Amino acid sequence: MTESRSYHQLSKEIQRCPLAFELGALHIDIINFEYVPPGPYWVVPNHQHSSYEFHFISTGKGYVTLEDKTFTVTKNQCYLTGPHVYHSQKTDEHDPMDECSLQCQIRLNASAPKHELEEAERILKLLNRPNGSNHVDTNGCIGIFFGVLREIQEKRIGYLMAIKQRMMELFIAAVRNLHGDKPNEPIELPMNHSDHSIVRHCILFLEDNYQNQITLEEAAASIHFSPRHLGRVFKTITGRTVHEYLMALRLNRARQLLEVSDESLEQIAQECGITNGSYLNTLFKKHFGISPNQHRKNCVLQKCNVNP
């Protein structure tokens, strides 16, 4: 088996692993991680998807069409196909290209700290702008990609952790390729370590106990601070009150349960620390703009479309 064919088989093996991770305020699910070896006749016909797909070329040459714009891609170049953007790919017959691709769904965690949300929103803005051109891989995406394949090949102790870490590195490097030489807009760092430590410990307490009825006084007592001080610092750093953050946690957990379980609204409400199913229905619709039942139906339809 040639090396390129071996890489192709290794990438197929990674696709069988459920991979998801948090990067600041971004939740990222890996849908597809694939290496396509060079060949003189491979063509990907015009298509679109609801996810983001990063493409990296390590050798050869090919042609990409995004919507109505066609451009050439060559060795050490990359490009992005965003959600619902029609695109097609074709290799050059005389200098066939390979392709490394990372396809992922990205969701914003609205309950993340304020500075993490700001950075995540900037990244999403960058990913969602029209990207009808190629970019030079100045941040080593291709090397990171093959590093992932080596991890799955060698299967040394901790390789699953290492794969997830390299996926994070790959995502950040790909984003930086897209950003290029544009001026940076640094995110303001947290005000001071002690205040952020207070909020971090409070969030851990909320995440561990959101199923229970929690007051500001109880949250403050858990980290040995006055309720007034905690409330002020928490709002300054996260942009939300403790109660607002707690409700966002509960509603995000309720959404997850709707997506993966057949539990009733009453059961989900009880598991998430919400008074009853009726109140959950009201809160969910206000927060997400859709009823819990409709969200569950949409998820079922999406699964049917993916797995006909």
Automatic annotation (TrEMBL):
Ranges for domain HTH araC/xylS-type: 200-298
Superkingdom of the organism of origin: Bacteria
Species per Swiss-Prot/TrEMBL record: Paenibacillus taihuensis
UniProt key word DNA-binding: yes
Keywords: DNA-binding, Transcription, Transcription regulation
Alphabetized GO MF terms: DNA-binding transcription factor activity; sequence-specific DNA binding
Coiled-coil residue windows: none
Keyword field contains Transcription regulation: yes
Name of this protein: AraC family transcriptional regulator
